[in-house]
Every structure is written in C-alpha cells, then in structure tokens.
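The authors assume throughout that readers already know how a fold can be written as discrete tokens. What matters is that the chain and its backbone geometry are given together, residue for residue. A single example would do more here than another paragraph of explanation. For illustration, here is how one protein appears when written out as sequence plus structure tokens.
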Amino acid sequence: MEFEHKPVLFEETIEALNIRPDGIYIDGTAGGGGHSRAIAERLTTGRLLSIDQDPDAIRAAGERLAGFSCAQVCRGNFSQMRTVAAEQGIREADGVLLDIGVSSHQLDTPERGFSYHYDAPLDMRMSQTGTSAKELVNTLSWQELAAIISKYGEDKNAVRIAKGIVQARQEKPVETTLELAEIVKKSVPAAVRREQGHPARRTFQALRIEVNHELDVLSQGLDEAFELLRPGGRLAVITFHSLEDRMVKQRMASWCQGCICPPDFPVCVCGRKPRAELIYKKGLAPSPQELERNPRARSARLRVCRKIEGLPEQE
C-alpha cells in the first residue's frame, strides 16, 4: 500500500513556520512527506532535514523528496532530534515541525495493527520494533492494563475492560485487533455500546500510546526541538488528542513565562525572562471545510511559538 498521509492544518502550518528560502528546517515527523515537500518547495539555498521512525514513511518521504537537493531524509525518533541533526551537520534551525500521532497510512494498513476496523495482528508499533500491543494485553496484570487505559485512554470503564481482557486471555491469547475490540465491547456497559463511536477507541489509543511511549517521546522531543531553534526560529506542533495538546500548551507556556517573583515584590529579583512568544494565543483548529474533507482532523490542534531568547532588544 502506498504511504498515504493527509496533512492536517496544512496551509496554516506552513504559513506559521514563516519559511525563509535560505533557512534550515526540520520536519521531525515526516510521514509521507507532505509537509516536508511543501517546505522544500519554498527553499533555495536552505536545507531541510526530514526525520521519521517508520521505515514505510522513510521510503515514501524519500521518494516524494527525491527531486529536491535541499532535502535529506533520515530514520530516527524526533525525541533524539539534536543527535540526528548533528550527524547531518545541523546545529541550529529556523523552524521545526512536529505532526504528532498515528498517520492515515498506519491506520489504513491492516497489518500494522493500529485499527479496530480491520482484522489484523495486534501490533501498533510505529517503528516496527520493540514490544507490541499483543505482548502487553497478554502479559500485563489487569491492574497494569487498567492504569494504562485510564491514564492514556481516559476511559472510566478501564477496570472493567482490563478485567475483561485478562478473563478472555485465560481461554486463549488475544492476538488480533478485532478480538480485542470485541472483548472491550463485551466488557463495557450496554449504555456505552449504544453511544456514538466504537467503545474500543479509547483502549486502542491507550495501548498505542503505551507501546510507542508517545508522551515521553513528545516531552523529550519538545525540548529537543526548542533547543535546536536559533533566536527567531519557530516551533509548530500538531496534536490529535487532549493529552498531547495539554503537554504542548503547558510546555510552550513555560517557555513564554517571564518573572515569577511574588506580585508584591517592588522589583524583579528572579531574573527570569521569557524564552519564547506564542504566535497564536490559542491553538488553531481545522476549518469546517477541512473537517468535511478529512473527518479524522476533528481533534487536531496546531500550536506555534517563536524563540526570542538571545534576540537583541528593540529600542
């Protein structure tokens, strides 16, 4: 299957990066190369480094960027962005893009095991290496599974689902996506089964996050990206669920925070200055027109900040 990824908030993201023809840019989550190609098309003497951990994405992005001498594609995780960039001789960047989460290709390729819409081996590994979702559901205790489903899926039925999984695997291992989806469906109350959307959605999200350590990777990746930015550089991050968006919002807010002295102090003694400023005070959501074209974009948010640390003060 051809690697298909529908870039969400595409125009808004490219505009927010404020791309200079001679600038250096990093796409930390290249996917199919849609955002990367748009960046490359705007460069003349600049450079683009596109990174992804998925071998399928690396092949697709490489093909899409083959005609651009300014572009380079490397396999790696964006949480190690500074190391990957340094290996390519890049120490600073004018812009970094992170498009977080699972791609359309990963969801729509049954054998990758991300979706409850297809019957496939229960996998969910973005890098195609390491511990799979199948190993988690067949080895963890119900307490551990419930903690994952509650924390990362924010599902109030986490205990019932976890106990249902453990009970089912006593008869036979849980091996496929549809087996797991059916176990979840049977484990939740009838009222939940009648609600819109599949009752296994949150469980699949939670397992995917755990398998890929997504929140830990995001936390480290945000710091890596910000440290790579030169003064004036921009970081644009697209998220797809509240846990990711909350982390990005809070991290950018911390970079933008200045003096933390108590309000009754007559002068600042902490010496803390803002390291960044927000391009948009609130995250951008997809337009109704985009949602009509791509319903999967409904939960997407774009947040962008500009590094100001070290910029000369204006008179």
